[in-house]
Amino acid sequence: MCRNIKTLFNFEPPATELEIRDASLQFVRKLSGFAVPSRGNEAAFEQAVQEIAASARKLIGSLSTQAEPRNREVEAEKAKARSARRFGTGSLPQP
Questions:
Q1: CB–CB of 84/29 below 8 Å?
Q2: Whole-model pTM?
Q3: Which structural domain, as residue segments, surrounds residue 50?
Q4: Is residue 70 part of a domain?
Q5: Torsion angle of alpha carbons 71, 76, 79, 85, nearest 10°?
Q6: Of all helices (H) and strands (E), which one includes residue 70?
Q7: CA distance 29 to 68
Q8: pLDDT in tens, the chain (95 residues)
Q9: At 77, is the secondary structure helix, strand, or coil?
């Protein structure tokens, strides 16, 4: 799965239209293999993004959970900590 596609369900505040569209765009890019489609494929590419975004909205709206909504800032900090453990701090030693 594409690492740039983030979980959008069960957050407070809920996922925005932009977040849903961005995830849909990443999904279509991954499936098609195009970061930017050619002019000939642009309409089909955009149509796919719109359809996937609509499906994602429908899915997110129909899911239910008993879990407390997640906090975006807390989840971002957890992701940073995982990244630091996996890749190090990101700073290079000075010569």
A1: no
A2: 0.77
A3: 11-74
A4: yes
A5: -120
A6: strand 70-71
A7: 32
A8: 456 678 899 998 899 999 999 999 999 999 999 999 999 999 999 999 999 999 999 999 999 999 999 998 898 899 889 888 988 865 555 55
A9: helix
